[in-house]
Backbone:
């Protein structure tokens, strides 16, 4: 989705300054009596396995931001996804589909295609946001006053899941290398629908590459 940037630039989308997070943070609750394993299992049962989203997207990089619309189909069980992004004029910027192993189809508007393999970059963000939302069984548990953390090895670094707020949903995933955050996904304003839990606001911060992606869910279909 962040790939919208160059495309949006080319398409003449909206520009502006970086803004504060537009979502409400979960109100803190004590976790003294919470069982970490039960928290992770309960959340795992509430993760939707096959859903469709219509979202507004804001990409922020340095001094500017650009906006667009994204259509996303996700099958979390199979690890598959399909994405279509367009600007507010209805011009398709990119489309691709893939799974945990890579992309199986992709389209990019010609000016964007000249910027490199942006679809692969976007696909990584899709996976960070929507796949693998439950920590592994062997993750190390750290219980704090108002949050439960699960830490596990991932690639060359470590992945940390934080569960906090009312009902203790997943509120962030943070990937670190050498104790430095490389990227973080923060989830806000969870809403229950047919027994499944959806964050209505999502912020992905890529510290290594210096951009931020803000996603607001507009429509959910299962």
Residues:
């Amino acid at each position: 989705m962040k790939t919208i940037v160059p495309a949006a630039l080319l398409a003449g989308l909206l520009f502006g300054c970086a803004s504060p997070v537009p979502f409400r943070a979960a109100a803190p609750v004590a976790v003294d009596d919470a069982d970490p394993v039960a928290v992770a299992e309960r959340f795992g049962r509430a993760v939707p396995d096959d859903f469709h989203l219509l979202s507004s997207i804001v990409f922020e990089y340095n001094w500017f931001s650009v906006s667009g619309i994204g259509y996303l189909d996700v099958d979390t069980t199979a690890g598959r996804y399909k994405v279509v992004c367009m600007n507010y004029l209805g011009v398709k910027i990119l489309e691709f589909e893939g799974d945990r192993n890579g992309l199986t189809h992709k389209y990019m508007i010609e000016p964007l295609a000249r910027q490199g393999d942006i679809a692969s970059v976007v696909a990584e963000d899709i996976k960070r946001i929507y796949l693998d939302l439950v920590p592994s069984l062997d993750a190390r548990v750290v219980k704090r006053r108002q949050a439960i953390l699960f830490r596990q090895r991932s690639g060359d670094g470590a992945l940390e899941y934080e569960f906090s707020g009312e009902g203790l949903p997943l509120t962030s995933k943070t990937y670190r290398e050498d104790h430095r955050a490389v990227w973080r996904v923060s989830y806000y304003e969870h809403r229950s629908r047919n027994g499944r839990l959806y964050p209505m606001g999502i912020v992905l911060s890529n510290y290594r590459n210096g951009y931020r992606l803000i996603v607001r869910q507009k429509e959910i279909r299962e």
About this structure: The mean pLDDT is 87. The two ends are 21 Å apart (CA to CA). The chain has four helices and twelve strands.
